[in-house]
């Protein structure tokens, strides 16, 4: 059975996966902020030599899936650090059953949080994955935000990559957006592992343990009878 000290393993893994998820989402947020405040428009090549300008972000851009994932990653990061600290304290703490129960409940909430984010992000991405930019309409907008359809950052930049953009390479940014979406799954698996491991340790601590040592029976008389009876 897993021991209390072995909980350091799943909690450390959870910390690593949560940190990576948070870093990937943060990079996307920083990228979008730079594009909106500094770049503002991209130059697309058209049928003539001038081409046209297209705004870096559409008018109907949904960022909720990013906020949800960012919250789940932040919760996991803080929780994993706290759980690591609590696990270290078990060495000097004999009253740990309530702590293990609380840890199990908090990890269960984290699993539900990440699972909800996973379902929501993939559903929204699927619903907008077939969107395409109407180049004629975009050209008429003259650099204003594109108003047709709703988009996620990933599906918007996927559509932008289909346009002949000049002097800009958005492939890396798009790949990072895909990466953080798919990274939710291994992050979810890490949280389930931590939850299950903690639950097993908590259940094991609640079950009364039979003593593993024997006891000594002393007899009277000159022989001084001594027998060790194993339980």
TrEMBL record:
* Keywords for the protein's UniProt record, in alphabetical order: Membrane, Transmembrane, Transmembrane helix
Superkingdom of source:
Eukaryota
Q: Where are the transmembrane segments?
A: 72-90, 102-127, 184-203
Q: What is this protein called?
A: Uncharacterized protein
Q: Which organism is it from?
A: Talaromyces rugulosus
